[in-house]
Amino acid sequence: MTDYLTFSSNSLAFRAEQALLAAGMAVAVVPRPPGMVGRCALALKLPPGCLEGAQRLLAARRIPILKIHALTA
Amino acid sequence: MVYLDNAATSYPKPPAVLDAMRAAIERIGASPGRGGHRQAIEAGRAVFRCRAAVADLIGASEPERVAFTKNATEAINTALCGVLRPGDRVVTTDIEHNAMWRPLCRLARTGVEVDVVPAEPDGTVDPERMLRAIGEGTRLVALTHASNVLGALVDVRPIAAAAHAAGALVLLDAAQTLGERPLDVEGLEIDLLAAPGHKGLLGPQGTGFLYVGPRVDAIEPLTFGGTGSRSEEEQQPDVLPDRLESGTLNLPGIAGLSAALSYLAEHGDAVRASVRQRTAELVTGLSEIAGVRLLGPREGAVRAGLVAFTLGQTDSEEVAAALDQRGVACRGGLHCAPQAHRKAGTLDRGAVRLSPGPFTSAEDVETAIRAVDALAREVLP
Ligand SMILES: Cc1ncc(COP(=O)(O)O)c(C=O)c1O
Q: Which atom of ligand 1 lies closest to the CA of B148?
């Protein structure tokens, strides 16, 4: 399974990407993966096992996550 | 040619600006915020980098609150038309650029009450006078940080404090100060900050932005649609910056602005010191020429990087044209700010404005002073 995050705007997705990269997490904004429901064109792909850490860091930076998606890779 | 029209737009730009614009067109090319292919994502990332750099520069902790516009005029119009409704009261000054004054006049015709506080003759604004005008029922206090004719700096802090005490918002037009003066929107509690990217920030023409602070609970866009986001919805998105960014963004311009902001992050102190020094040299040199009358604050006082003057009774546009012939590019006339000229008593013949930039040398200033001096000897009795 791979975790993806979506946000209410592209700007927030890139801000989350910047914040997590700066914290040493190998994330990337990617095209919406197959199987993702909703209308977001972009998603932030997390490395395995990083969901909780990412959530914590984004909450601390006050970057709200719209939705968490767990998709089979 | 000696270019002394940086108050209109800065020239030259740091070379990295051109490189970044070229790279954006050649290597990214795609539309930011439209579609999810990798090139579009790279475009979106480039726009975000610039947004984050602007937010950093102005002390805003949320880059989403920075919406790109094509210039300061669009940003000011968006702020005024976005928050003011018929019956609202707005307090402003009598030295505003017409990017502020014309939309206010138009809003006045729709039932917005516009209260105008007179500035001092040198272009400073007495906070006490503003405080007396700001009362219950004021929705917005809208003013320039420095007049583009008089150049005096306005002390924003007490004005913002009074506005907030009365429940009003503050809109600051930083067209003549951003880049040259540090500005911290959160520290100064500025709710709406409008600025061009193409003057003191050294970015390309076609760039500007509006910062929208957390006190602004609702803002109507000037234009609708084409945000690339929430395409399933009929209404403009509520989220910033999408709410205020309709249509395809100026990717090459924004990439250029990013490069300019990196340049300023590295060389900002030297840029500011140099502009201040050249401005002081202009003030000193011009004030020694017989027949020259300087507008704005007295010699030695704090001012933005511009110096406007008159030469006897000669029409300012004739003086500017004669200086152009002598190799000095500057602007005569009313500078889109007839009110400031009325204040200075120069509404009939305008003034000539010399405005240095970070690349203006001491020799450039000397050339300009010599040209004005020679002209003065020629045209004055
Ligand atoms: C004080 C002031 N406000 C607004 C503007 C408008 O800026 P822009 O040309 O970016 O729309 C200018 C520039 O001419 C200005 O000097």
A: 16
